[in-house]
Task: structure prediction
Amino acid sequence: MTGNSQSTPPVGSKDTPPRIARNYIDGRFLDAGTPFPNLSPVDGRLVGQVLAADASMVDAAVSAARAAVDGDWGKMAPSERFRLLRAVADGIEQRFDDFVAAEMADTGKSLVQARTIDIPRGAANFRAFAELAQARAGECFHTHTADGQRALNYTVHRPLGVVAVISPWNLPLLLLTWKVAPALASGNAVIAKPSEETPSTATLLAEVIDRVGLPPGAFNLLHGGGPGATGEFLCTHPGIAGVSFTGESRTGSAIMKSAAPTVKKLCFELGGKNAALVFADSDLDAAAAGIARSAFTNGGQVCMCTERVYVERPVFEAFVEHVATHARALRLGWPAESDTDMGPMISAAHRDKVLGAYAQARADGAVFVCGGSAPHFGDSRDAGAWVEPTVITGLPQQAQALREEIFGPICHIAPFDTEDEAVALANDSDFGLAGVVWTSNLSRAHRVAERIQAGMVWVNCWYLRDLRTPFGGVKLSGFGREGGMHSLDFYAEPSTICIKL
Ligand code: NAD
Ligand code: 6OD
Result:
């Protein structure tokens, strides 16, 4: 998996010059676009320049994508399409080290995480959706009407046409390919817009796709910002049939408005304010380690991260200390060091937002059990976007830190007395993405999991994934589901064909 068989230098590594993230339209990398810098959140150094696509480049990408759907890509035998997608997975693996270096350079995430989660999933997404789309069956009915007519009714699945996929910065390749792979597998032409914070692995993906030889226009990559920029241009464009978006709930609301005049099909994976319930009968060592993992992985910058923890009162105090012990042990280090546990926030702006939430929690009366500020390193990382893993207690349920997504390495822990109270506290949120239950009582596990108003509930684990299962949220956490056939259902519409017999 780690062989770096091609010669391209890793993006933005210390010993290579900064690279330019170019747009990819109609099978060509373009030098056009307005440059903006990509800065490392580790120490503020320049990773590279990014070329933002303007409205005319969005038009060009939509025209190229349309031509691909109407031409070679649309007419290609599905088996050939699936072969190409598997070749993209192979191509990611052949350049595994380049992808890992690029993801670390943009985000500062640890080598271990990039190697074990982000990049393997980039390849796995292409394989999974090639297989699922290949296995997809239509419906078929022999129809006998009351007045004696007979017919054969069957369904075919048609791609939407040109789709835009817009992704965030926290799991850049994983979340972009989670959309690109099923969209292509379903026969759409895709215009991908990664976050402006994380252009590098998307650019490498375009290089892989180019080398694999998808027909020009089947996959296009546009860099740039959101409001009043590339993202909004895509969401208002009449040539785009659907938008799959992952990001903040507020952004989802803005995209809904942009897409409304042209009635685009939408799928939204939005923010979370996820709760974990820890019952006294659980394996408390496993639960504390699991809560720490679910709160601090990727610096708490994962949509399913647990920011609210409710613990059964008899074990509350010991449990708080147990989680804090895990938090204190986390090593904030250089991304490439193998013992680094946690990297920085994605940007100085996001660090300030997270520290602002810490300050608000303090003002609202939170007790800081550990963390609560920016670390001091005494080296160039002091110019980066770091915050300490933080455990707090003592806030009322209405405090801002328990209502709004922080998206940083923090969890608040509060006690509960009864199962009903625990469920009510978990559900007392405008969000409904994920939940976690820790218990060794099997009946309780089923009973409580079913009552949590969230798209995904993990019991005695967290972020254990099967790519065939539905993934998504309720309330402010979005609508529509990705994963398995649910993704394919979004990217293709069934059409019924009725043959009179
Ligand atoms: P964001 O909403 O700021 O940006 C996401 C993407 O949308 C970026 O590519 C951005 O350029 C684009 N964008 C922004 N405004 C736009 C507009 N008006 N029109 C079109 N595009 C626009 O989110 P972020 O800060 O990159 O990511 C963090 C957020 O994403 C958190 O809220 C997190 O919970 C959420 N998230 C959710 C999931 C999930 O599966 N539910 C997964 C990852 C992240
Ligand atoms: O693992 C996935 O498929 C997925 N969609 C993860 C989302 C993570 C959010 O930050």
